[in-house]
Design goal:
This protein is α/β, with parallel strands linked by helices. 47% of the residues lie in helices and 10% in strands. It starts with a helix and ends in an 11-residue tail after the last helix.
Length: 702
Amino acid sequence: MEVFAACSEVNDLIEGGNDLAARNMLIRLLGDLDRSRTPYPQVLNQLIRTAGLFPYLQLETASWDQKFVHEAFAVDVGNRTATLHREQSTVLAKLLDGRSIAVSAPTSFGKSFIIDAFIAAKRPNTVVIIVPTIALMDETRRRLYKKFARHYGIITAPDTPLEARNILIFPQERAFGYIQKLRKIDLLVIDEFYKASVVHDKERAPSLIRAIVQLSRRAEQRYYLAPNIKKLQDNVFTRDMEFLELLDFNTTFLEKHEIYKEIKGDAQRKSEALLSIISPRKEKSLIYAGTYTEIRKITELVVARLDKIDRPHTNHFARWLRENYQQDWVLADLVERGVGVHNGRMHRCLSQLQVLLFEHEKGFDSIISTSSIIEGVNTSAQNVVIWKSKLGQTNLKDFTYKNIIGRGGRMFKHFVGHIYLLDSPPKEEDTQLQIDFPETLLGSLDETQDRESLTERQIERIIEYKRQLSDIVGADNLARIKRDNLLQDSDADFLLKTASDMKEHPEDWKGFGYLNSNNPYDWERMLYKVIALKPSGWDAPHGRVVAVVKALAANWTTDMPTMLRQLSSAGIDIEAFFQLERTITFKLSALLSDINELHKMIVNPSVDIGGFIGKVSHAFLPPAVHNLEEYGLPRMISRKLHKARYMDFSQPDLDLRSALDSFRSKGLDAALEVQGLTAFDRYILKFFFHGITPDDTSSTPG
């Protein structure tokens, strides 16, 4: 359509009050002009201004008043000035006015961007940001570190000392260790706050609610973010907050291609359809697989049908994977074809590297993913392919589906995102978010401080729970549990049952101290007992969990290929190893920590397995090495740096902050000169240093 005719149609839609249709048509027009590199006529700039899409104003052809609007909505976002769109500016103005707000907006809205502008404008002393995953924590840390590290302590690892001003970024489970250390929180941010509903995250909702309750007591102001929530039901967590539903304000347009109607369930036609989308390699494609089984199917299809490519980044990465993990790992075969895999199981550094290569012009063309791509990172693509409308074993809900397809398009890069539906989408529905107190959480609440949020029956239950636990551990220990957040599990019934069992059968806990032994075979009996306390959710038979714990004892001294060969005899492949290592470092370490505290109070105060728990939580790696993986530095490179005496990771007092300070002091050039590093090792080091260097004094690896 001719530009002025299209502008006339957009104007008619605006005049008719159909802002959504007008904005969609306008964005599609901008995409056409961007591809043809056509300058915007002034009338188009005026329509952009009317639609509130101020960042899209083309200043070269703008009138003075349009330039004024562009400047008027410009704000400092930490290391540069950026222009906000109309609704972003509205949200920021409310925050700067001191209001607490919950915002529901599309994925492309730029909700997180507002945090940066708030920090730059207000310079608060303490900001706490709760995110759903470690991957999103790292992405948020990288963004904020570049902008604010010269003025704030950017804290992501447990037990990091606070500075005068701090920005703390955690998944909810890590927040509890800091609650007593924070006298006041200037801004509490809960990202993806819909996960406080058991409907959306049954397993982790209780711990998120617990974190919200305890952090909110210290928070002067709150900012909750979520996509695709049409209505927020009345609840105690957001009762005094303003809810802004801004779902219709999109900054990109999603064009849907309903290919499933042509496929009609035929597996061969479905495979051919996927290949026709990704094989040209001209556009970035995010493939949502739905399940691990479907990832394997797509992997087999890609390896069998796509040719290998000859690109330096993918060639080096494939070789690096084979040398450092497993010679016959199928991920390396995918990488050679310009395709990556993102899931919540593999090592953090591998997920980060694959997202980096996906966003690199000469890296990956496509990336296959489970829901981890929507929960873990803010990446986007020109194409989003829905291969299977599943979320694990359950059917995909409309809420999650919208979140996935929201990854299509990106401001200034892809005005139009193409959504290819190879499986029928879920039925459309308006999501109403309801957040309730899980009954299992009541034991961690306070009948006095939280009285306004509780019913009389719930208050009675809390009092009774405290009485029962006090009878077992004593009043002083109960007070200490509350004051210091000693117990991590949010299931009060489980904790009470475990404490009762210890009180009644102390003889069953003889040998608990054997977990402090240097011989992994001494751990077996007690590991089986502890794991059996929570028998489900270990992702494998208990024997395999124990086998991996014992194998991890040599994690720092044994290379990954050797460890994987040893575990293969127990039926544990590389994918199972990734999942079990993750489960052990999080779930097992948290469970052991609670058992240890109760054991000291009830059975034997002289037995303390804190040292063993620390080793488990760090996968038996030096703590700094394990924490640095979240920063993008793989353990195998840390091992090379250690052997070359670039840094001594065996120092008992080397924590994450000390290690980062040492890296910055020694510098990237010295690290790159270490003997034995491969070309891809050096590429990773550049990426790592980019993430720990304030401002823009270093560039992203090319």
